[in-house]
Design brief:
single chain; about 90 residues; alpha+beta; two-stranded antiparallel ribbon; 2 helices; 2 strands
Length: about 90
């Protein structure tokens, strides 16, 4: 591609690949020239959030609370959380 995505910065950003730039005739600033707005989530107040997603969040929070001292298991997520999320979005997380 003509660009790269910087995911290491605090705020992600896009940059041109080596030797790439704006098309001829386009005059934009080299940094902060393009802003991308997006909406994430399932609604403003939770009423449209599927119950399986709420259950997955509660299950994960309870699991983290019970496993606060377990360093080895800190990065693991209970399989039930995956199952609940997959039931809504059908994706692998």
């Amino acid at each position: 591609p003509n660009f790269f995505v910087d995911t290491d910065s605090e705020c992600g950003r896009l940059g041109f690949a080596h030797g790439q730039g704006w098309p001829t005739g386009v005059e934009l600033r080299p940094m902060n020239a393009v802003k991308i707005q997006f909406t994430a989530g399932l609604g403003d107040d939770g009423t449209t959030t599927p119950s399986a997603v709420k259950d997955a969040i509660m299950l994960y929070c309870a699991w983290r609370n019970q496993n606060r001292a377990a360093e080895k298991e800190k990065d693991q997520i209970p399989l039930q959380v995956y199952s609940l999320v997959r039931s809504v979005w059908g994706v692998r997380v």
